[in-house]
Amino acid sequence: MKGYMIDLDGTMFHGKKIVEGAKEWIDSLVEQDIPFIFLTNNSSRTPAQAVQHMLDMGFEHIEEKHFYTSAMASVSYVSSHYSGRKAFYIGELGMKQALLDNGFTIVNGTDDLADVVFVGLNRNANYEMYSEAVKHLVNGAVLVGTNNDRILLSEKGVNVGNGSIVAMFEHVCDKESVKIGKPYQPILDEALKFMNMKKEDVIVVGDNLETDIALGVKFGVETIFVLTGIHKKEDIERLGIHPTYVVERMTDWKG
Ligand SMILES: [Mg+2]
Known about the structure:
Blueprint: E1 3-6, E2 13-14, E3 17-18, H1 22-31, E4 36-40, H2 47-57, E5 67-69, H3 70-81, E6 86-90, H4 93-101, E7 105-106, E8 116-119, H5 127-138, E9 142-145, E10 151-154, E11 157-160, H6 162-173, E12 178-179, H7 185-195, E13 202-206, H8 209-219, E14 222-226, H9 235-239, E15 245-247
Parallel strand pairs: 1-4, 1-13, 4-5, 6-7, 6-8, 8-9, 9-12, 13-14, 14-15
Antiparallel strand pairs: 2-3, 10-11
Helix pairs in contact: 3-7
Bound molecules: magnesium ion (MG).
């Protein structure tokens, strides 16, 4: 039995609205006891907030154990690849919680210098906060972006994505960020550890060819491209990113 790594935005919901077929498919996974996680580049929500967000729109049987975010992957990756545990972060509660859960000391608002600067989306960040991050980075802190999405789509249109903020820090400090989120390998490796499964035993599900499907294609994991979100069937040829399977909606998937 394969397990699923499932994208959220455009695959499970649009804003606060459930995507057609998404709830029925998740219900069927739960009923058959098939392992799955929601694998998201969104670092803003904690798993508890993410559960509530989905229950509020009408999903059922969703638990905290089902969520693996780019914030969790970033902290887990840094824990096993770097020794420093003093962190400065830009982010929301999901980022902060991941740091505290993994024994990091947060230096925000203190005179202490950080070993690592984590950059996740914070919709209330300002110039002062960015400049404080730069102080740590020029003093030798490692730059870790939770994800490199250039743009973020919402009901209001196109917004600045976390990847664009990370690129700003790379430019300011002339150093490259450690890349974690989809389509980069760290989030896949960390998520496999979290699920306690091998890559041969999972399928990546998503609406975005450049993040979800590219992750699977690059690292030898099967993929299901669902046509409920950002990319259309024609984009497969245009982008040259070829999923293993393509479905209109997840209830069409007979795995
Ligand atoms: Mg998506």
